[in-house]
Design a protein that fits this description.
With 202 residues, this protein is of the alpha/beta class. It has a single domain (2-198), classed as Ribonuclease Z/Hydroxyacylglutathione hydrolase-like (Metallo-beta-lactamase, Chain A, 4-Layer Sandwich). It has helices spanning 33-42, 60-63, 66-71, 85-92, 115-122, 161-176, 192-198; strands at 2-5, 14-18, 21-25, 52-54, 75-79, 108-110, 126-130, 139-143, 147-151, 181-184, 190-191. Strands 1-2-3-4-5-6 form a six-stranded mixed β-sheet. A five-stranded mixed β-sheet has the order 7-8-9-10-11. A hairpin with a 2-residue loop joins strand 2 (14-18) and strand 3. The radius of gyration is 16 Å and the shape is globular. Residues 11, 59, 61-62, 152, 185-186 line the site of zinc ion. Zinc ion (ZN) binds at residues 11, 59, 61-62, 152, 185-186.
């Protein structure tokens, strides 16, 4: 895997490359397309070189540019489990945010159960798994080499008691998949083994 972080404004946007396919994980605050393009340029990438896009959850800092990127030819992988969250995203947006509403009909619809086959077809060894807790639509992208892109899945001790068990179960899914390094939506990457112990999973 080749990994480039083109993030800005406290959020990570990861370009993951495997077998000459590039997948963008998470996609900008609304109205910031020029910033994303500049970020890509700085890292020697052009938007035309990004083949696919998926978002870890439909919050403004992670999914604000989905439709604009689709309009530029990036194919959006939308998991069926995320579908209900798409219309809700619009309700979070401020009137002058520049947000372009997502048209789900031209996204690539996929169930998490079929994500491994789909990713393999396009060049990635891994899968997308539902990891709810931060939001119901939260997913993680897990690559077989032991890395996971987890969006805003927080440590169980940092969420309210009502969500702690859901979050713990989501982390346990990642532990069982053999994840060793976490690439979060905000902040630096971290090794998971020590934390899994802190989370009470091992
Ligand atoms: Zn976030």
């Amino acid at each position: 895997m080749n990994l480039i972080n083109v993030g800005y404004d406290s959020t990570n946007y990861y370009v993951v490359e495997q077998n000459r396919t590039r997948l963008l994980i998470d996609a900008g605050w609304p109205g910031t397309l020029p910033k994303l393009l500049a970020g890509l340029r700085r890292k020697g990438l052009r938007l035309e070189e990004i083949d696919y896009l998926c978002v870890t959850h439909f919050h403004p800092d992670h999914a604000g540019l989905v439709q604009e990127l689709k309009d530029q030819g990036v194919k959006h992988i939308l998991l069926d489990e995320q579908l209900p969250a798409v219309p809700v995203l619009k309700t979070y947006m401020k009137p002058n945010s520049g947000y372009v509403d997502i048209r789900v009909e031209d996204s690539l619809h996929l169930a998490t159960t079929g994500s491994r086959a789909c990713l393999q077809r396009i060049g990635f060894d891994g899968e997308m798994v539902c990891t709810p807790g931060h939001s119901d639509d939260s997913i993680s992208v897990v690559l077989d080499e032991g890395v996971a892109f987890t969006g805003d899945l927080h440590p169980p001790m940092l969420v309210g008691e009502d969500k702690a068990e859901t979050v713990r179960q989501s982390w346990d899914i990642l532990r069982r998949l053999g994840v060793r390094t976490i690439y979060p939506g905000h902040g630096p990457a971290w090794p998971s083994r020590v934390r899994f112990r802190q989370f009470g999973l091992i």
